Predict the 3D structure of the following.
Amino acid sequence: MYALLAAAALLLARNLYVMLLVLPDEAAQGAIYRIIFFHLPSWFTSFTAYFLAGVASALYLWKRDNRYDSLAVASTEVGTVFTAMGLVTGMIWARPVWGIWWTWDPRLTWALITWLIYAGYLMLRKAIEDPSQRGKNSAVLNIFSFTAVIITYKAIDWWRTQHPGPVLSFRTGGGAIDPAMEQMIFLNWLAVMLLATVLLLIRMRMEQSQREVDALRRHLHAM
Amino acid sequence: MSFLRLSLVIAAKDLRSEFRTKEALNASLSFSVVILLLFSFAFDPTSDMTREISGGLLWLAFAFAGALILNRSFARELNNDCLDALISSPASGAALFLGKALASFVLLLLVEAVSLPVFGIFYNVRWSSQLGWLAAVMLLATWGITVVGTMFSALTVNLRLRELMLPALVYPMMIPALMSAMQLTTVLLAGEAVAGGNLVWLRLLIGFDIIFTALSLALVETVLVG
């Protein structure tokens, strides 16, 4: 885990050097565009985390193994953190470029809805005491919640939004973005993902310990 | 008995017990009228602006009134351990869910059928010019609301904080259905037809109904039985 953390720190330092000192300013936006190197990776990371949480929830319903439940809650929590980061970096970017902090643009609105829905998941977990009931009910809710992620992802195709249409080459076939900048987005995604993985592992360990503490406490209570 | 038959028996039971006491129905109906009244303080009810946001107002009132009905959907079975009896009956979780959803659907439609003319009178909106389309949108959106609401009612039925948790969880999840219904209703109340750019909302609404009905029927057994 420490190795992962060190790798994340090193890659992040190297990325910061390249994005601040090597890559040029963007033609229309100037220096501020560099926030894309954190904005997009935050969203990719949070969507990946939600996807992982959805898969873990489905696996929990299938196998009823507590480790999947821990993975689901850890992954959802990491996802909500990076959703918050995506929202905040987006707002900082929108202020100079769109002239406004918050635009109620469909993708932005859906990102907020997604965040609220997953916050609801975390609230529901807190409200249920029985571990097996908590596991299955929150797993079902997590699977429901993933629909919001899909809508957020497709929002730029379904509605006219202030967000640009598809830019990255895996959706456009290339040409919409400078290859050096695109490479930087993915390299920084890797750095953020490494960090997210470390957070996920810590959170999972916490959840497992909590489960043990709860079980011991119940045991003690029964005696 | 077949699956559908069992669902209908459950729905009939729920409706019968509701019509005998009218607890949820009366509360929901008066709540919906109170909300429509409260909106008149938020802005000038006689201006043209009302027409532009009429769909939004109407569906907010329906969504709030719906939560009262949906809250009761599974919670009414807690007394005398009726929920355990229902679960141990031959009806599957999905049939039980479908019956409960149908009953709430009928109740919410009743509330809407009374609230709509009241809304028309309060805000001077002529709502009958596109009646067929309006009825279709109301049926589709109300089904979307009840199917998600009934599912979440089942999810939260055993919680101490049930009444607090249900609205916090269910409203964000209902947004696609509510959003489409608001857009379409505003268009229809203005006397225009659903066409062109508005069809995306109709597609979203139908997609929402199909996806959430399927997801709920597939997963409700897990929630109720384990």
